[in-house]
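Hi everyone, sorry if this is the wrong subforum. Our group has a chain we'd like a structural model of before ordering constructs, and none of us has done structure prediction before. Sequence below.
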Amino acid sequence: MLLARTFIRIGVRLSFLAVYTLLVSCTTKQSSTTDAVYIGEIDRWHAERVEKLKSPSGWLNVAGLYWLNNGINSFGASGDNDLVFPEKLGAAKAGFYLLEDGKVKLTLLPNAAITSKGQVIQEILAFNPDSTRQPVMEFGSLRWFVIRRDTKYGVRLRDLESPALQDFHGIERFPVDRSWLVTASWEATPGRTIPITNVLGQTTPQDAPGVLVFTLNNREFRLDALDEGVEDELFIIFGDATNTKETYGAGRYLYVRKPDEHGEVIVDFNKAENPPCAFTDFATCPLPPRQNVMDVAVLAGEKEYKHP
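Answer:
Right subforum, don't worry. Here is the predicted structure as tokens:
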């Protein structure tokens, strides 16, 4: 009888151990599967990000930025122009831009053979800087258009055959880590603006509708979020202790969805990305405001892009 009870106790213990082992195994497999799915999502996001960089509207083909002076600004492939374009433009003297009273007018010489949407252009008012509604000039692999930064007007040049595009070899990243995926509470600040300075030294007020408040390593952090007019998106410019070491010296960018009905925002630092200035000298990147510089190393997202 005693022997039978002993066998029963042993059997119960073995059954419990088997069940426990099975539960641990299932939980581990489920966790591994969840991590694999999450890593796959981040990898797909990064692949799309790279394709945007390489696209005709991406930053890798930006090959020039020419600031306009008030009055006439000649341009062409010849070195005696105000705006000296690459030799592949063909025409030594292609025409001129006239900047007057905050408006830009473009006049092209007949031999320039420059087009816009496939049509040969001779004269055009280049209105709506930075807008998809403004005309883009075309010649061979070159594309250019007018931009505005505060009171400055300029011509941004793209080369769809740019060496920087041809030599692009990808962007190094930190390993994807779920611990850098946090939920932030949203402190709304309607009607508020904060000063944002860009690499040109220009400081302008930007809409800052709220603050993201979250915890990392048992410490609270606060980041001002900017509204760039995208319906469901907020823009964050932040710095951290990895800048000038593993990551770009002037900080990184992060885009998040606007707060949900509970006033929460998902912040995923695995999607932290290099600013355009990491890829080209002809960008005008905004810099992190002082309050968005974190005294912690954010070991997530993109590392500094290493040019060939």
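For your construct planning: The chain is about 20% helix and 35% strand. The longest strand covers residues 142-149.
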